[in-house]
Specification:
This protein is of the alpha/beta class. It has six helices and 13 strands.
């Protein structure tokens, strides 16, 4: 799976470890999600095209590089994906933000859509789909399909923690989509939670149970 990228930067790994800890507070968990997302966004945007422009510095005129090509769109999968948006916007403040609302049926573990609102020019943007956890992959597969159905062609997926089962599901369903993760964990347990994981990311982000 050549399109799967595990971002093993020491700062990312250190912050992921802190997120996993049971004693990490809601405030700290939220801040860590924001910080990791910023660090990951640096790698996710590494292949953005550049173009030369003429500028004038206080010393002289020169040719310099600037970002060219497609603009960025960030699409969090509600609700936990919201915890990753601000980190990306810190790095790419002009990005537009859409939202896809999905929930996992507790019995079938299949995704159910309840909301989708995208930038009007979403199909012209590089879309970064964000969700802290990639467990079964069902929500990510469905969200990416929703985007493709609406004309989006350049899509990347960004997760903090992933199970091998989820990575395989997305790679099989959408082999054209680049997947960026901070940690590839061991497996899913019988309740479709990632092991060792970090618990329910949404509950830990927002202080709910």
């Amino acid at each position: 799976m050549s399109k799967v990228h595990v971002l093993d930067h020491p700062l990312i790994q250190h912050k992921v470890t802190m997120m996993r800890m049971t004693e990490t507070t809601t405030k700290d968990f939220r801040e860590l999600a924001n910080e990791i997302s910023l660090l990951m966004a640096y790698e996710v945007t590494r292949d953005l095209p550049l173009k030369d422009i003429e500028i004038e510095t206080p010393i002289c005129k020169t040719t310099a590089k600037t970002v060219a090509g497609r603009s960025i769109g960030v699409v969090p999968i509600l609700r936990a994906g919201l915890g990753m948006v601000d980190g990306i916007l810190t790095l790419v403040p002009n990005a537009k933000v859409g939202h896809i609302g999905l929930y996992r049926d507790p019995e079938t573990h299949l995704p159910v859509e309840y909301y989708c609102k995208l930038p009007v020019d979403a199909e012209e943007r590089t879309i970064i789909v964000v969700d802290p956890m990639l467990a079964t992959g069902g929500s990510a597969v469905a969200a990416i399909q929703f985007l493709k159905d609406r004309g989006c062609k350049d899509i990347k997926l960004m997760n903090l923690i992933a199970a091998p089962e989820g990575v395989k599901a997305v790679a099989d369903a959408h082999p054209d989509v680049e997947i960026y993760i901070a940690s590839l964990d061991e497996r899913l347990n019988d309740h479709a939670y990632i092991v060792p994981g970090l618990g329910d990311a949404g509950d830990r982000l927002f202080g709910t149970k």
